[in-house]
Amino acid sequence: MTEHQVPARKPARPHFSSGPCAKPPGWSPDKLKTDSLGRSHRSKLGKARLQLCIDLMREVLQVPDTHRIGIVPASDTGAVEMAMWSLLGARPVTTLAWESFGAGWVTDAVKQLKIDPTVMEAPYGELPDLGAVDWSNDVVFTWNGTTSGVRVPNADWIAADRDGLAIADATSAVFAQDIDWNKVDVLTFSWQKVLGGEGAHGVLILGPRAVERLESYTPEWPLPKVFRLTKAGKLIEGVFTGATINTPSMLAVEDAIFALEWAKSVGGLEGMKARANANAAALGKIVEERAWLGHLCADPATRSNTSVCLTVEGADTDFIKKFAGLLEAENAAYDIAGYRDAPAGLRIWCGATVDTADIEALGPWLDWAWAALNS
User: Fold this and answer.
1) Are strands 144-145 and 93-97 parallel, antiparallel or unpaired?
2) Per residue in 277-299, pLDDT tens?
3) Residue 339 zone, left/alpha/beta (φ > 0; ψ -120 to 50; rest)
4) CA 367 to CA 365: how far, in whole Å?
5) Region entry Disordered: which residue ranges (predicted)?
6) C-beta separation of 283 from 359 below 8 A
7) What are phi and psi of 57, to 5 degrees?
8) pLDDT of residue 1 exceeding 90
9) Which domains does the chain have, with CATH numbers?
């Protein structure tokens, strides 16, 4: 391919954003069920659709009956902060950060809750020493660093006999990576990531140890209404059976139901993981074949298979902006510039709602943009 020769084939769906992510293949708004729209979420129908959404999440994610699943406000951020504000303060806390969202939870713990946590940090592309985590503490961490492309390799580092709670922001890990539910007391995510769902709603999954903490501990600080999970010292069970704390978008719920039913159609959790792994492998081949591309995460064992972050030889923020802009103008790739707080580079979503053929078709377009900017 010469410097300015435009590739013959474009990705059929050039949606590579890391959130909101690509819709499931075959999605269109006219495929969503609409009977619940314009109805109260407290109606029999509304509650049934919310419960179905919860049931499908449990089925696809293989969440055990010991864990409760709730739909909560404010996306994954709301779910994480609900957990932190409601649960922390009973014992010492450790916060782990190796990218911007983990750093945000550190800020919450240090500056907002003022609980003086132990902070374990690592630069973008790396992990802190997981073996040094003190599990007598409550521990807050991101399972998959969406803005760095670095994930924990597994749950082996989480102590089975821990005294503290394991609180995991897993918004770009669920439906793509293995979660050991025996090692997780709190897990959060949002539909807008690996399901390709709509934003504004989060999912909060509580294990029995987290429920026990909620029912035996009252934080020193006041809790906003949208954070309250207990009443008179008991868990508000309705939150986990579809009686949401605030009014949900039933359109977003129907969209999530569509995505979950699609997930079942491709083989459920194993099918979703296989699709993400195939996408990440296809992108890895593209990187391997180009000397000017690299992985921000050098260790394959901790490299994300969803939010894959790439380095570009000699690139600064302005170069990346132009690079991504060229591809967007050609409708060849949308939203692939790295996160604003991350080192300058590309970030390409490889979750299951992306088709591997589109990742493969992206390679020549990366060459084209690189050649155009270096000619």
Assistant:
1) unpaired
2) 999 999 999 999 999 999 999 99
3) beta
4) 5
5) 1-40
6) yes
7) -65, -40
8) no
9) 29-264 (3.40.640.10), 268-374 (3.90.1150.10)
pTM of the model: 0.97
Distances (CA, A) of 194 to 303, 351, 352, 354: 16, 6, 7, 10
Q: What is the pLDDT of residues 15-65, one digit of tens each?
A: 999 999 999 999 999 999 999 999 999 999 999 999 999 999 999 999 999
Write the DSSP symbol of residue 68: E
Rg (CA), the chain: 21
**What does the alpha-carbon distance between residue 249 and residue 198 come to, in Å, rounded to a whole number?**
10
Residue 217, pLDDT above cutoff 60: yes
Assign 60 to helix, strand or coil. helix
Q: What angle do CA 321, 194, 242 make, to 5 degrees?
A: 130
Extract long-range pairs of 33-41: CB within 8 Å, 24+ residues apart.
Answer: 33/254, 33/257, 34/254, 36/250, 36/253, 36/254, 37/250, 37/251, 37/254, 39/250, 41/244, 41/247, 41/248, 41/250
